[in-house]
Amino acid sequence: MTTAKRPLITDYFSQVETATKKSKSTDKLDTDKTLKVTDEAKSMKNHASTKDTSVHPHELTSFNKQEWINSLTPEQKDLLQLEIDTLHISWLSVLYKELTKPYFLNLKRFLHSQQQQGKTIFPKPQDIYSWSNLTPLPKVKCLILGQDPYHNHNQAHGLAFSVLEPTRPPPSLVNIYKTLSIDYPDTFKVPDYKELSKSGKPGGGNLTKWATDGGVLMLNAVLTVEAHKANSHANRGWEQFTEQVIRVALEYHQKHKSGFVIMAWGSPAQKRLKPFEKILAGGGGGDKKDGGDGRQFLVLKTVHPSPLSAHRGFFNSQVFKICNEWLQKHNRDVIDWSVS
């Protein structure tokens, strides 16, 4: 009896490369076409982008998901089932070794114990890695660094700063919107929660469009939290894992000369970039506003948009405008920062 051959990661990247060659416009690939050969297509149906913004042919890798799964011990397979099912193949292919390191397995044991104790964890399991499905590795054009997921109901869904409907946009997100309205006074419309509620569509804080259409990777340092207990899952291993996420993103885009913008708001986010000073100095970095110095990455540092600090420089930072100017000068499509 023969079994059907499972798709390799090469299928994903070869589809992307073929589509890139056929497309006359950069950043306009159809994700449904490029991802239909992968196992992740089913899990992505609620989070899939309508575009794949890859701009360069990509190096093929021999990563075979099924072979890797077969190499796991029964306990590892049980602990990592969520990653197997929901971590996008483009990220899994460069992070799979990280998943079997002792610290990550201990993190997963901790999370399993929390569930067994009946504790409520945010975001929902299927949303923990939504950042990876909404923004596959080749698509990244901007990285926004967050800290900890929102810890109340109907908020966190795997994207830093973003909240699910019908939740009212939190204060930091409101300040982000204010800055956007300053950067783009003629085109950006701040979502009006009261108006949306009257029309039967309450919310206005869901930033999924930034991820799917804009290639904005909204990554928290910690990916889970216990309900109503801020920072309750800090120092459990997530920070080490998401540091690796940043590292592989930098290395991948440096290698393929596609670069991206990094928004580091507040000292915690800026400290997260310390391990990457060498790669940022060699292939880009700094916080220059002209974006015309040939650097491969642009780091935009400012205070955090929190009400406690936003008035000290965030509103007039022009981070969104500068980001788009840099992307345009580096021959990448600019980001539509509108929410709806």
From TrEMBL:
It is an enzyme of class 3 (hydrolase). CDD domains: UDG-F1-like. The keyword Nucleus applies. Residues 133-327 form the Uracil-DNA glycosylase-like domain. The active site is at 148 (proton acceptor). It is found in: Mitochondrion; Nucleus. GO terms for molecular function: uracil DNA N-glycosylase activity. NCBIfam families: PRK05254.1-1, PRK05254.1-2, PRK05254.1-5, ung. This is Uracil-DNA glycosylase. The gene is UNG1.
